[in-house]
Design a protein that fits this description.
It is a single chain. The protein is an all-alpha fold. The protein is 93% helix and 0% strand. It contains three helices and no strands. The chain has helices spanning 2-26, 28-79, 85-112. The radius of gyration is 30 Å and the shape is elongated.
Length: 113
């Protein structure tokens, strides 16, 4: 018997909550607050997406800069005969790939804006 009593209490609470939500939905103030919340969330999502692209673009360009320094070092070592052409090619590829990722990330920000 206590289980049946608890079930009916849960149903009663559910009905009261549903009626309260319907009444709040009809309120102009609550509707305005919900609409403002949706607009704020959408704007914040766009701003955070743009920030994400800018931060990743900066990180990729920083890695490309590190690759460029390594490329210069490997070219100097190659001219001195202390390294192979494979390491120079690897440094070129690394610098080019991360440079492309960084530039394309900033292009995507520009396209979205």
């Amino acid at each position: 018997m206590p289980m049946a009593n608890a079930l009916t209490t849960a149903r009663k609470v559910g009905i009261v909550a549903r009626v309260a939500a319907q009444q709040l939905g009809r309120s102009r103030h609550v509707g305005a607050v919900l609409q403002a919340g949706r607009a704020t969330a959408a704007h914040l999502g766009r701003v955070l997406g743009q920030l994400w692209l800018e931060v990743t673009g900066f990180v990729f360009l920083s890695l490309a800069g590190i690759g460029a320094v390594a490329l210069v070092r490997e070219c100097i070592l190659y001219q001195a005969g202390k390294t192979t052409v494979g390491r120079v090619i690897l440094a070129v590829c690394f610098t080019a790939v991360f440079g492309w990722f960084g530039v394309s990330s900033f292009w995507r920000v520009r396209k979205k804006g």
